[in-house]
Amino acid sequence: MELINTFMETAAKLWNNTGFVNGNWMQYTMVLIACILFYFAIVKKFEPLLLLPIAFGMILANIPGSGVIHMDFYDPVFIRELGYPEGTIIAYRELLSGGGLLDYLYLGVKLGIYPPLIFLGIGAMTDFGPLLANPKSLILGAAAQLGIFAAFLGALFLGGFDFREAASIGIIGGADGPTAIFLTKTLAPHLLGPIAVAAYTYMALVPLIQPPIMRLMTTKKERSVVMEQLRHVSKTEKILFPIIVTVLVAFLIPDATPLIGMLMLGNLFRESAVVDRLTKTASGEMINMVTILLGVSVGATTIGTSFLRIETLMIILLGVFAFMIGTSGGVLFGKIMYVLTNGKVNPLIGSAGVSAVPMAARVSQSEGQRANPNNFLLMHAMGPNVAGVIGSAIAAGILLSLFK
Amino acid sequence: MFTETKNVMINYSSEGLRDLLLSGGTVALIGFLIVFLVLIIIILAISLMSTTLGAFDKKHPNSSNQLSIDPDYAIIAVISAALDAYLRKEDLLETSPPEFIIRRIRRSTNYTISQSGDSLWN
User: Fold this and answer.
1) Cβ A234–B68 below 8 Å, yes or no?
2) In 3D, which of B112, B20, B19, B27 has the Cα closest to residue B73?
3) Least CA distance to A170: which residue of chain B?
4) Dihedral angle at the C-alpha atoms of A373, A375, A378, A380, nearest 10 degrees?
5) Spatial separation of the C-alpha atoms in residues A173 and A318, rounded to whole Å
6) I want to staple A46 with a disulfide (CB 3.0 to 4.6 A). Which of A123, A204, B4, B89 is the partner?
7) Minimum Cα–Cα distance from A403: chain B residue
């Protein structure tokens, strides 16, 4: 009898320690949301490289009592209560004595390490040749940043967010995950989870969001324009480009230096062709490793109590608004270029200025071919597309310098 | 002004909204214009670089007397043109080769040729 009692007590104690007993509806809802993201990533193949680790991080962080992450350690109010000096961003004593696995991985986000490293890899994979062959396409990359500033205003007026939060929400319109994370971790770290999830989800949904806007804003004649073949770009130009852009941007917008600097360093690795091993590492294993760490730790910031709020819904709505305005801005400037060049520029390439490389360029290509099966816009759209990466990093630098 | 508005609580009175419109609108406008300005500066720098390189490098695509053809395509086109001529038992060098090859390049690569075909042989 005593044996049975001991067994029952032990079993009850174990049961009481499980997540099923200690969980609340918010945590179960977050697990459900993670499952929806799994569906998008695995079945629909929408940005699986990031949605998959983000969704898994979401599950890990929302299992009651798992202790893998403690977002309190990064909360300014909590840090102040513990008596840390003003300006401390991490409760480092508590972190070292009782931190979980994801607390340590999250340091890469909190300290702004992962996004620039991702940019290093992107730079090593990107060919800026189409941009160099047609530098005017940088204008389209700038025009598509309209979504950032429109969503910024929308967040201020409609969402009731403060300036820092509005800037972080606006950057979703840049369609660049690492840039959004880089800006938000400084200006509004408490919104990091919803903003990162919204940014990557919309990036995945580019093929669904953009085409209706592109068709609505252009005529069939404009969409059918066959653009002239791009000129050949010499190796010297490709080598000088990253150096010139880094120096110019770093001097003009110092806050954009970590992102632009790493992007251009990666590109210099590639174009110089003298550090093949570094290029392979940056564009291969390194970016893969950082993607895992970034995805899991960003997913882990989506704790139910902070994620399941009306603000998250507002962020998701404002994010899609930012994407739509950004696409419209790019296409609108594409139309202006169409008029100014007497119909030599296909306005469809403008929508690729929202970054989201190379998905947005592929959308321009497919819409162009839909209107004219002999149309090959991919390389023309790659110019604004990579310009969008530079443009959104510069926009993030500007917002940082205004509000940090 | 911007440092003062960083963490401002939103005041929804008509005066508060007007102030918000002014400060938020100014930030958005200035931010967007700066993005444009920086990218225009980059365009100017790229154009300057390309022009300078073009002036010094005769093989550079921006230099005069040069075809806007990707060399890889040109080589393929020349080889296929020569093969064509051989199969038709024509003497490639005696049948006005540049024009013949330029026609072939146009057909096979859809490349736009802006300069005289002679420059292919330079």
Assistant:
1) no
2) B112
3) B28
4) -160
5) 9
6) A204
7) B6
Considering chain A, what percentage of its residues have pLDDT values greater than 90? 65
CA dist., res. A78 & res. A193, Å (int)? 19
Among B2, B10, B13, B27, most A C-beta atoms within 10 A, so best to mutate, is: B27
CB B44: neighbour CB atoms within 10 A?
12
Ranges A35-49, A204-218, B19-33: which has the least confidence = B19-33
Of A135, A142, A244, the CB nearest to B35: A142
CB atoms within 10 A of CB B68: 17
Q: Do A240 and B49 touch (CB under 8 A)?
A: yes
A68 is written with which tokens? 């893998």
Long-range contacts of A75-80 (CB under 8 A, 24+ apart): A75/A190
Cα–Cα distance, A48 to A39 (Å, whole number): 10
> For helices A257-272 and A114-125, what crossing angle results, to 10°?
30
Tens-digit pLDDT profile for residues A205-231: 888 899 999 999 999 999 999 998 888
Answer whether 0.90 is exceeded by the pTM: no
Average pLDDT over residues A250-260: 94
Nearest to B61 among A164, A234, A394 (CB): A234
Which of A152-161, A178-187, A240-249, B13-22 shows the lowest per-residue confidence on average (mean pLDDT)? Answer: B13-22
Distance CA B49, CA A142 (A): 21
The residue of chain B nearest to residue A137, with distances taken between CA atoms, is B43
